[in-house]
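Researcher: For the record, we're logging two predictions in this thread. I'll number them. Prediction 1 follows.
Model: Prediction 1, sequence and structure:
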Amino acid sequence: MKLFGSRALWALSIPLLFAEISEIVLHVTDTLFLSRVGVTELGAVGLADSGIEIALVLALGLVDGIQILTARQIGRGRPRRAVRIFNLGFLLTVGVSTILALLLRLNAVALADWIIESEAVGAALLQFVDVAWIGIPFTVACFAYSALLVNFGRTRVLVPATLLLLVTNAALDYVLIFGKLGFSPMGIRGAALGSVIAEIVVFVFLTAYLWRSPAIRRYGIFRVGGTPWRLFARLIRISIPVSLQGLVEAVRWFVFFLILERVGLVALAVANVVYVCYSVLRIPSEAFGEVTCSTVSRLIGRERLDRIEPVVHQSTRAAALVTLPLIATALLVPEWVLSVFDLDAALLAPGAASLRVVALAMAVIVPGEMWFTAVLGTGDTRAALGIEITLTVVMLTTCWLAAIPLAGGPALTWCSLGLGWLVTLAVSYGWMKSGAWKAYAY
C-alpha cells in the first residue's frame, strides 16, 4: 500500500491535527503567558493540568468507549444505532464529569497539602484549580463531540473549532493574566478563567453545528429513547478498562512532575516547558492514531481483519512524515524553540538538552502510538490497560532512578520516556500479531 494510497486516511487525519491541537492549546497558551509571570507559576500550571487530567479520566474513558462502539455500528451500516449509543453515552459522560469536577474542587486543598512540598507552588496550584474545575464538563462534552465527528467523517468542523479555542484563550489570557483593558492582573487565576471561557465558547459552537447538521441530525442526535440497553452495558464494560488506562496515564505524568518537584523548582519549570513541546511533537501521531483506532474498529465491523495491519503501517508512515519537520527543528535549534517561552539562562540549557532527548524518543513513540491505538480499536481494552501500566512502571522507575539516586539532571530523566515507549511498541506489536485480541473483536 502506498503512503498516499488512501485519501480517506489523510482527509480524516489532517482536520484531526487541529483537534489534537485543541487538546493541548490551553496548556500551551497558559504556559506561554505564565512563563512571563514567574517560575513558580510556570511550574504550578504543569502540576495543575496533570491533576485535572486525573479528574477527567473516568469521563474520557466513557468517551473512548463511545468512539469504539459507534465506529463498530457505523461499520455495520447502523448509523442510527450509533447515534443512540452516543446520546446515552453523552449524558452519562457529562454527568460523571460534573461529579468529578465537584470532587476535585472540594478536595483540592487537602490533596495539595498532602503531596506538594513547596508552599508557593501549592498556593499557585490551588488558585488555578479553584477556577479551572468549572470547565471540566465542557471539556468532556467537546471530546465526545469530536469522537462522534471522527466516526461520521465530519472532522472539518474541528478546524474552526480549534482556531476559535486558540484565539479566545489567547486573548483572554493576555487580558486577564496581565490586567489589560481595565481588568486587574489575575496571574495564574486569570489563565484558568480564560481556559474555562474558551472551552464554553467551543462547546456552544460544536453543539450548534451538530444540531444544525442534516447529515447527523436525521439520525436523532440529542434524542434519548429506544436506546439498546445491552449495548449500554457493553459501553460500561469497555469503558472501565479505558478509564483505568487514562487514569494510569494521568497519574504517570502527575508523578513524573512530583519527582521533579522534589528535585527543585527549576527542574519542575523545565519539565513543564519540555512537556508542552512534547505535546506538540505528538500531535500528528495522536491525530493519525485517532483515525487508526476508529478505522480498526470499523474494519472489524465489516469483518475485514486482513486490512488492519496495512492500515497501521500506512498510518505510521503518514504520522512520521508529518512529525519529521518538528523533530528536526527540536534537534537542530532547541534554544530557538524554547525562546518562545522567554526562559532565563538557568532554564534554557537544561531545557534544550531535555528537548533533544524527547525529539529522539519520537522515533519509537510514533510507531508505538499506532500499534497501541490499534489494540484499543479492537475493543481489547484490558490488554490496552496492561500495556499502559507497563509503560508507566518502566517510565517512572527509570525517571526516579535518574532524578533521585543518580541526580542526573532533567535530560537524563526524560530518557525514561523513550525507554517506556520502546517497551510499549514491542508489546503492542506482539499482541496484535498474536491474534489474542480476536476474542474481544465481536
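Researcher: Logged. Prediction 2.
Model: Prediction 2, sequence and structure:
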Amino acid sequence: MLDEEEYAEIWALMRTGMESVKSYRVENRATLESVPLRELYAPMLARYEAMTGYKETNPNAVIHHRLSFYGPPCKSCGKPLRTPKAKICGSCMAPRGLKTN
C-alpha cells in the first residue's frame, strides 16, 4: 500500500504513461489493444516495485494501492476495512472496533 507521498510519485508516473499511450496511438494509428502498455508504463511499474518490493504487471492495479482508499485494520482479523467509513469488516464481518478473538 502507498502513503500519500508515494502515491503522488506513482500517480505522476501514471500520467506520463497515459500521455505516452496517447502519443503512441496517434503516431502509429494504433488501437488500444495493440499498444505495448507494459513498455509505456515501465517507469511507473519499476518505481512501484522499488517502493513495495512487489512486481506488479498491471498498471491499472497499482492505482488501487492507495492507503487512504481503505479504512484502519480490523480489530478482529487485522485486514484493512474496505473504506474509511466501513462499519463492518468485509473479510470477517466483524463490526468496526469490535475485537472478537
